[in-house]
């Protein structure tokens, strides 16, 4: 080989190496660091001021932005009187369960004056998620958006929006919610309903003295906007609509879906939905109400009010009327108990299931579970007074009639260090303890049992779980959230699940892939997931009142054989109980 051709070969090889390095760099994640100071702040809503728990004095809290593949490090410092923990809702936390956040499940809470660094990598996910406090009812004001962008240079599988806007729904109480839930759990009654719903922390013009506390969404004609919808409300599923505008649903729970048009979105607490809003070609000489109000199916009282913001078109000409003089058009939202709409909407959600974004639905099943989810009762424990549940009882909630008792030390710690004795037992029932007509006349005995029981799964178990609503105390839709995994919603229906006939109707081709699903009122839902993430994973109703009453349980997924299938050891700053 001549010196000239050798130089040329070296040049070609060097260039090739550089190109490969650049290509890898384009897709390599970076580390993003955040500091969360948990502190009190005085906030006024509905003409009343109160001190609330916030992150960095912001309400809602700061947005976490990352790209798929990035590492996220959040240093949380607790400056308030309450114990605190933060959950990164919907983040898979592959082998990083110590960073998941639910208090007494994956960590002891961060005590006053203490701090904890949450450290996790966003793997194989892109879209909208959110973070929130995961202890008691602190998430009422401690929440914010998580925006995961695709890897650099990778487009969305839908038209590139002109602008992206997070829309976070919340719930507001005039009273102190920590005092309220504490009293309710002592008396056995239901806590007070909220005084308002909020959009990005603002109630909107339909509430007393809230005209100034209104979201203004300013848009330009002929543009496409991506609205990142997040339901961070405590206890209510919501219908959402923008007057005189169609929405195109493109993603749910940070998973792309087959796009479909709708003028109303249903979103349960714990769910996120990305929608495209295409503005009108010309200035419409009107403003448009953006509104959300509850979908409620249970027997209990609920906050039947409407939160709203205003969609305004940019005023390009001085000749056009002033915004204040323009007519305000309102959307038409379903009645509060419109289960027909709710069912039709959830049935439209389908995975893309293409080569780029496959739906990896387990086609076979290793273990089947059938869980009843619903309300129940506990005997009155107050010696000197009557309890406020039916017939002097205390309201409770359960999965397979087990009302979960929170341990006083974290389950993940107990599991990792083989110290489960007196912390939890592994005898969570695979099926209900006794069969009855789940959606018909309830049994005479509505009492629940209590315990800290878990299910243990070997690594890579293919799980099928059917969750069945019950009519005990009252049938109700329950949004169930599973930590550590996405699952596929392979089937749902009304009445009692029939294991002989219903599986034939399961969708194993393009079912919706989610982290939170509504168990239909007087119905059932079937999900499948692959237990490929070692650790302890909480599963609970995302209606906070039901979680408080015990509608929760945990799965322990054992380590796999390979090194990359094992849970990593805990970080040195893991909080102590």
TrEMBL record:
Its cofactor is Cu cation. One of its GO terms (molecular function) is metal ion binding. Residues 38-151, 164-315, 428-559 form the Plastocyanin-like domain. PANTHER family: LACCASE-4 (PTHR11709:SF522), MULTI-COPPER OXIDASE (PTHR11709). This is Laccase. PROSITE patterns: MULTICOPPER_OXIDASE1, MULTICOPPER_OXIDASE2. One of its GO terms (biological process) is lignin catabolic process. Its EC number is 1.10.3.2. Binds 4 Cu cations per monomer.
